[in-house]
Every structure is written in structure tokens, then in C-alpha cells.
Amino acid sequence: MDRHVAFDGLHNFRDLGGYPTTDGHRVRPGRLYRADSLGRLTPGTPDWSRFLSLGIGTVIDLRHDWEIEKRGRIPEDASFTYRNLSIEHRPYNQAALGADVDPGPYLAERFLEVAEDGTKEIREALELLAESKAPLVFHCASGKDRTGELAALILSLLGVDERTIIEDFSLTELATQALLSDWRARNNGNSPNWPGFARAPESVMRLFLERLNSRYGSVQGYVAEALGMDAEALSTRLRENLLEPTPTTWQPLTYRRATPRDAPTLVRLRDSVALWMLARGIDQWKPGEKDEAHFRRRMDEGEVWLAHSANHLAGAYELWWTDEAAWGPRPAEAGYIHRLMTTPHLAPPGTGRALLTHAESRITEAALPYARLDCLSTNPRLRTYYESAGYTVAGEQPAKDGGLGSPYAVTLLEKRLG
User: Fold this and answer.
1) Average pLDDT across the chain, whole number
2) What is the DSSP string of 87-120?
């Protein structure tokens, strides 16, 4: 499955399915969606047909009445029920904030206000979710703050861990540029005053959860104390409605060599993995570091491969034939594996090892005896992963220039093939 559902006029429509819980279940795909404003949908368009095909039975609009009047609401249709539950009672203008406002603490405080001001509406939204037997979508304007906060409460009650909840919030970063473009189009081409506008750094959700936990002990404590609900009973109903056992069988991986048309997909995959890392405190990749031109260049100078399971993207990797930045001048004796990426939460177990094996087979076909790669010296967990796949440490490069303007230390690993 692909977490992001593609629409022409929507930028942040996502399926919450596939997230694992701490007890071996996962959120059932195709049952719970979060989105930016559905007021941009128009009957008779491909977007409208795509939306109706999801079988959604309830739409929860978290915006203010005046936002709906100004920007429109989703058109009426007999297939779903529409509810407007404005959970934010103290509106604020993010676009006009000063450049010195740090998004993390500022938005975390606004989220706490919403959690305590909007108890009536949040309670009703959670009840609708617990009762709904058909797919449900909730949305605000950009699908970031109000939508992200409600998603965090739901995922926590379902038993999803905090790192994944933080990651889910930060995935709006993949839509930031499109959301900014829409804002500029509505405002005569001007840009927002606040650099943090439409951004979703992990610090926002991390700080909000810290403050909510500090005040109430946990999300469950908040539900009991602030919402006046039986948190355990609510959690049980939500879990019965929205969870399924984690699959034990998966469709086999198929491989396809990437073409220039795949560059946007590769950028999105890399940025998704970067956000997964940041939510877990791994300071390695940042979103936006590699653009489409990077991947097209790697296709020209080497190989880039995609792996799919049941027609859904599971992962990708780059294969280089030289790597002087890390290994220095070397004879033509190795293939160099880079950017081994698996789709967070949605790839079949073992996809990373399968990608390594596929890359090694390509190196063997090129009649080269070594597979080589490197990893950050500060990431011992990744080094252990590669060592478990048969790679041994061949040295250290204390100042690799990866083209990002700041050299970094890497551990060099290699594996003799055949």
C-alpha cells in the first residue's frame, strides 16, 4: 500500500493504515484517513471519483465556521455523513508570526490549548471513530496541526508508540512545498512572513506529547480527566474497530531498474525515510537533501533499482561503480551500494536484506569480486546490521565529502562475493 493517496488538488491525504502497535497488531489499511481541506473537491472530476472510491462513510471537518464559509466544504453526497467539529477555540494567524518564533515550543503550546479548549468536539470525534463501521476521514485546512493532533490521540489510544506518532505528524513535510504554493496563489504571490508556515518538524509533536504526559500522565489520562471518558473502554472499542493482526505472509518482491520518471518517487521515499530517522533521534538524513537531479545522475552513472510487493513500493537502492569520496581511488573491483531504503512500516519484513542480496547479484553479474558500502561512524546499529549480512569493516574515512558541504566520518565495509 502507499500511505499517501494521490489527488490532483489535495496535497496531504494519507492512510493511517499499516502503523504497528506495541502488541503485534497494525492499523487496518483503508479504514482511517487524514487530509488537508476537502473543500477543494469538485463533483465530476477525477479527484471526486477517487475520493468516492475509498468508500468513506463519515467526514469530520475540524475547521472553524468562517474557514468553511471562506474556503468551502466537501460537496454533499448520499454516501457519507458530514460533521463539522471545530476543535480549535482560539484561532491564530501562523502566516503572520515573526521569523524568531520556534515552531516546536510555539505549536506545542497551541496544541495543548486545543486539547483543553476543544474537549467537547474531540470527545465527539473519538465517539464517531469508535462507532464508525465504514472508512472515516478527518481534516482541517492543511491537514497538519488540528488533524495531526487528533491523529496523535487516536494512534496513541490504538497502542501505536510515540516515535511513530511523531513520524506521522512530520510526514506533512512531504507536502510543505505544495501547501506553500497554494498559500502564495491565494495571496497574490506573496510568501508567509513565518518561515515555519506549513512545516511539521518532529519537535512540535514530541514537545506536545511531553507536555500532555506531564500534565495528565498519558494520553489515556487526558482522555479520562479532560474528556471525562472511560479511556480503557474507548481504547478497546477503537482497537476492535480499527486494528488487525500484523500479516504473516507477504507478496514476493519484484525488482525493476529505475528510469528518470521514477525520480520523484525516489525523492519522496528518501524523505520519508529521513523523517522516520528524525522521529527516532537518528541524526543522519534530512528531508530535501537529495533532489530529482541526484537520482537521475545516479541512473546515468550507475544503477538505481526499485523493489515492489504486490505492486506497492517496498524499497530502493543505488549501485555505483566508483566511490572515491569514501574509498579513494581504487581499481575496478567492486560495486558500491548506497541509499538502501525501505518504505517505513509498509515494506515486507526482510526487505532491506533482500535489497542487499539483489545489489550483490548485480555486482556479481558485472564480474566484480566485492560489494562495498559505508555507514556513519556514529551509527553502530547500522554497522551491526551490515555485519550480520556478511560485511566486514575495511577501514574508516574520517572526512567523507558527501556533497552537502560538511564532511563526516564513515565506517567502510565490504563483502567478498562468490
Assistant:
1) 96
2) --SS---GGGS-TT--HHHHHHHHHHHHHHH-HH
